[in-house]
Amino acid sequence: MAGPWWSQCRRHKSRLLVHTVPSCCYRTIHSDAKPKDPFTLAQSDLKSLYDDIRKELFVSKEELKFLCDYYFDGKGKAIRPMIVVLMARALNIHSNRAGDLLPGQRAIAMISEMIHTASLVHDDVIDGSDKRRGKNTINNMWGERKAILVGDFILSAASMALARIGNITVVKVLSQVIEDLVRGEFMQLGSKENENERFKHYLEKTFKKTASLIANSCKAVSILVNSDPEVHEIAYQYGKNVGIAFQLVDDVLDFTSGASHLGKPTAADLKLGLATGPVLFACQQFPELHAMIMRRFSTKGDVDRAWQYVLQSDGVQQTNYLAQRYCQEAIRQVSMLRPSPERDALIRLTEMVLTRDK
Asked: Which residues in the chain show pLDDT less than 50?
């Protein structure tokens, strides 16, 4: 999916050590006028988001209702619905309409958060995680069986809300997300022997597990307001590139951020047997990592040794550089839309993705 960038990262090691995260990507394309904060701009559209979700999840059985509402407590960052809201407004202005959200677009922002949260509930079961967003996971508190059922129920409620939008193309686009999530999880369970195949596998898995939801949600809101396939593609490509960059930075933070920041222990991916970007890049300098990757860091001492190899290598810098390249492509895509505060906020968001520390 991104072979040339991966090759480029390998070729430009010396440059990578001094050129990691840019101070500001968007200034090269836009004027010095500072765009509004994306969270502030989307706030009015998102203020009732969690209340709307809890209404969708209304059930008479008290325990199920409590479990469904557990993560929808209004304390999440709501990054995905925020991107969807900003993209919808930017597309509406681009399409000669008022910027206000259409009801279907608002529903898509809500559905994106529901699908995302359902996938987290299921991921925690698969990974055996006991913490999520700084609180105990559902599987840790109430057991795996109930957690699986809660994830399924949230997905079913999201599907009902999706059907009510009444656009078959939108249904098809967002159904692709659920397929990708499952395929991505299966990909995460496997390893590739060949180095180049391994990196391609990692990026494809990253797209399916993280970026597909953002890409297809952005595409879905574009379908509701514009019939031009090129506009749909701009929305999709922005979401795809920002989504991959977001996950690459997340993979870096697993090595550079403390548990208090992330709300989960560091080196979590290594402990799960996962070789993310920093490890795959480090393998170029420390071939000893190859055997550890293939056995998924299962031998005693593997996690600590792999951790040290990554920190001694430039794997973190190279992964940051790759994230920067994806953000540059996201900026290139969204800059094709007509200027608007929301479009510029989407551009500013790429900088926030690259510089976040949690």
From this structure: 1-3, 11-32, 259
